[in-house]
């Protein structure tokens, strides 16, 4: 593959054109282009819900060449504690390269969010500062909901402009952010309307992150159809935790308790904010977990 085609493949992936990107990434190369080709092939596996495949290819890519792109994908593909260490080391290595720093700060924000660490917000803000884009702006807004003090109406006002963006991935991220903001404002009907419009865009890789929102906002029948679609795809780690949590939110009685306890066990180390939601629902059911999160 001509190395100059890597940026084209990146743009295709950003636009959700996975087949076209895969066609460009078929030919093996030597040296650095091959490492980055493998990282992008791994990312495609992650989009299909195969996180084991993503991790294997990301590890091989970083073994061949450590670049901002390969280390970005390594950080996202590893378990979050290991990924955070890899990304922090990468930031020191590439300090002074604004675009590389922005990419790595964004990945670190995502990984630290999975660990429930408030520093995620600072890294999202730095990514936005160094490379303003719909992606960095929306991730920053989303993390403001969890860790910041930005008023919810301001999050909604800034995020709404991205609901009509040309890139489906941007629309998904905007919809996720705004649906969450509506739920936090106690407006599940608005969240439901947003989510219903996004359902046709969901693929195997993006589906798990919408399951919990769907269980909280969608009508039960539609939420269960969403769960059935998720159960038909690959399930591991945090995606399995989301599946169990969504099931627990939809069920009642003893079945809900068992599902929520299982979800909590999977999410406490890789999805801590959602593990807190499981804890809250368990307390409402009169149950406790052995080691509640701080």
TrEMBL record:
Superkingdom: Bacteria
Name listed for the protein in its UniProt record: Tetratricopeptide repeat domain protein
Organism: Thermus scotoductus
